[in-house]
Amino acid sequence: VLGLLVWSLIAATTYHLHAAYGWVMFVSLFFWILTLLFFVIYLLQLHQKFYMIPWPLVLMISNAVATVLYITAFVTCASAGQPTSWRQWDYNRRAAASFFACVTMITYGVSTFFSFRAWKGLGSNAATSQVTDHA
Protein backbone atom coordinates (compact mmCIF):
# COMPACT_ATOMS: atom_id res chain seq x y z
CA VAL A 1 0.00 0.00 0.00
CA LEU A 2 2.82 2.42 0.83
CA GLY A 3 4.63 1.78 -2.43
CA LEU A 4 1.34 2.26 -4.27
CA LEU A 5 0.97 5.65 -2.61
CA VAL A 6 4.48 6.69 -3.66
CA TRP A 7 4.14 5.89 -7.33
CA SER A 8 0.55 7.08 -7.63
CA LEU A 9 1.42 10.44 -6.06
CA ILE A 10 4.38 10.85 -8.41
CA ALA A 11 2.31 9.71 -11.40
CA ALA A 12 -0.29 12.39 -10.59
CA THR A 13 2.32 15.12 -11.18
CA THR A 14 4.21 16.26 -14.25
CA TYR A 15 7.09 13.93 -13.36
CA HIS A 16 8.14 13.53 -16.99
CA LEU A 17 9.45 17.12 -16.94
CA HIS A 18 11.99 16.25 -14.24
CA ALA A 19 14.40 13.35 -14.78
CA ALA A 20 14.86 12.80 -11.03
CA TYR A 21 11.27 11.70 -10.60
CA GLY A 22 11.72 9.03 -13.26
CA TRP A 23 14.07 7.22 -10.87
CA VAL A 24 11.58 7.52 -8.01
CA MET A 25 8.86 6.21 -10.29
CA PHE A 26 10.99 3.25 -11.42
CA VAL A 27 11.99 2.22 -7.88
CA SER A 28 8.51 2.53 -6.42
CA LEU A 29 6.74 0.80 -9.29
CA PHE A 30 9.31 -2.00 -9.62
CA PHE A 31 9.27 -2.91 -5.95
CA TRP A 32 5.51 -2.54 -5.73
CA ILE A 33 5.12 -5.13 -8.49
CA LEU A 34 7.82 -7.38 -6.96
CA THR A 35 6.20 -7.20 -3.51
CA LEU A 36 2.82 -7.94 -5.03
CA LEU A 37 4.36 -10.95 -6.80
CA PHE A 38 5.85 -12.27 -3.54
CA PHE A 39 2.50 -11.72 -1.82
CA VAL A 40 0.69 -13.81 -4.44
CA ILE A 41 3.35 -16.54 -4.22
CA TYR A 42 2.90 -16.80 -0.47
CA LEU A 43 -0.90 -16.40 -0.63
CA LEU A 44 -1.22 -19.30 -3.07
CA GLN A 45 1.45 -21.24 -1.13
CA LEU A 46 3.55 -21.66 -4.25
CA HIS A 47 6.70 -21.32 -2.13
CA GLN A 48 6.00 -24.82 -0.80
CA LYS A 49 5.86 -26.25 -4.32
CA PHE A 50 9.18 -24.65 -5.23
CA TYR A 51 10.98 -25.86 -2.12
CA MET A 52 14.39 -25.87 -3.83
CA ILE A 53 14.41 -22.05 -3.78
CA PRO A 54 15.63 -20.63 -0.44
CA TRP A 55 12.65 -18.28 0.02
CA PRO A 56 13.80 -16.65 3.27
CA LEU A 57 17.12 -15.75 1.63
CA VAL A 58 15.39 -14.47 -1.52
CA LEU A 59 13.06 -12.30 0.55
CA MET A 60 15.91 -10.97 2.66
CA ILE A 61 17.95 -9.98 -0.40
CA SER A 62 14.93 -8.43 -2.08
CA ASN A 63 14.03 -6.42 1.02
CA ALA A 64 17.62 -5.28 1.51
CA VAL A 65 17.90 -4.11 -2.10
CA ALA A 66 14.52 -2.39 -1.81
CA THR A 67 15.69 -0.59 1.33
CA VAL A 68 18.85 0.71 -0.32
CA LEU A 69 17.08 1.79 -3.51
CA TYR A 70 14.25 3.42 -1.55
CA ILE A 71 16.88 5.43 0.34
CA THR A 72 18.06 6.82 -3.00
CA ALA A 73 14.48 7.36 -4.17
CA PHE A 74 13.56 9.18 -0.96
CA VAL A 75 16.60 11.45 -1.12
CA THR A 76 16.00 12.13 -4.82
CA CYS A 77 12.32 12.89 -4.32
CA ALA A 78 12.92 15.09 -1.29
CA SER A 79 15.76 17.06 -2.84
CA ALA A 80 14.11 17.62 -6.22
CA GLY A 81 11.08 19.41 -4.78
CA GLN A 82 10.79 23.10 -5.53
CA PRO A 83 8.43 24.87 -3.09
CA THR A 84 8.46 28.09 -5.14
CA SER A 85 7.04 26.35 -8.19
CA TRP A 86 3.99 27.87 -9.87
CA ARG A 87 2.39 24.41 -9.75
CA GLN A 88 1.61 24.17 -6.04
CA TRP A 89 -0.39 20.93 -6.39
CA ASP A 90 2.65 19.20 -7.90
CA TYR A 91 4.77 20.29 -4.94
CA ASN A 92 2.21 19.00 -2.43
CA ARG A 93 1.99 15.63 -4.14
CA ARG A 94 5.76 15.34 -4.40
CA ALA A 95 6.15 16.25 -0.73
CA ALA A 96 3.62 13.57 0.19
CA ALA A 97 5.45 11.11 -2.07
CA SER A 98 8.71 11.95 -0.25
CA PHE A 99 7.06 11.23 3.10
CA PHE A 100 5.62 7.94 1.95
CA ALA A 101 8.92 6.96 0.31
CA CYS A 102 10.58 7.45 3.71
CA VAL A 103 7.92 5.36 5.45
CA THR A 104 8.23 2.67 2.76
CA MET A 105 12.01 2.67 3.16
CA ILE A 106 11.64 2.12 6.91
CA THR A 107 9.10 -0.64 6.32
CA TYR A 108 11.41 -2.46 3.91
CA GLY A 109 14.24 -2.06 6.44
CA VAL A 110 12.15 -3.68 9.17
CA SER A 111 11.15 -6.44 6.73
CA THR A 112 14.84 -7.01 6.00
CA PHE A 113 15.48 -7.48 9.71
CA PHE A 114 12.66 -10.00 10.09
CA SER A 115 13.66 -11.78 6.86
CA PHE A 116 17.19 -12.09 8.23
CA ARG A 117 15.83 -13.62 11.44
CA ALA A 118 13.73 -16.08 9.44
CA TRP A 119 16.69 -16.97 7.22
CA LYS A 120 18.94 -17.62 10.24
CA GLY A 121 16.15 -19.44 12.09
CA LEU A 122 16.09 -17.00 14.99
CA GLY A 123 12.33 -16.63 14.90
CA SER A 124 11.48 -19.94 16.58
CA ASN A 125 9.40 -20.06 19.71
CA ALA A 126 9.82 -22.15 22.87
CA ALA A 127 7.67 -25.02 21.59
CA THR A 128 9.61 -25.52 18.36
CA SER A 129 12.99 -25.17 20.03
CA GLN A 130 12.21 -28.12 22.33
CA VAL A 131 11.53 -30.54 19.51
CA THR A 132 14.37 -32.89 18.71
CA ASP A 133 14.68 -35.09 15.68
CA HIS A 134 14.89 -38.68 16.88
CA ALA A 135 14.67 -41.12 14.02
UniProtKB/TrEMBL annotation:
It comes from Sterrhoptilus dennistouni. The chain crosses the membrane at residues 20-44, 56-75, 95-116. One of its GO terms (biological process) is myelination. It is found in: Apical cell membrane; Myelin membrane. Forms oligomers. GO terms for cellular component: apical plasma membrane; myelin sheath. Keywords: Cell membrane, Membrane, Transmembrane, Transmembrane helix. PANTHER family: MARVEL-CONTAINING POTENTIAL LIPID RAFT-ASSOCIATED PROTEIN (PTHR22776), PLASMOLIPIN (PTHR22776:SF9). One of its GO terms (molecular function) is structural constituent of myelin sheath. Its main location: membrane. Residues 1-120 form the MARVEL domain. Pfam families: MARVEL. Belongs to the MAL family. PROSITE patterns: MARVEL (PS51225). Coiled coil: none annotated. This is Plasmolipin. It is a multi-pass membrane protein. InterPro entries: MAL, Marvel, MARVEL-CKLF_proteins.
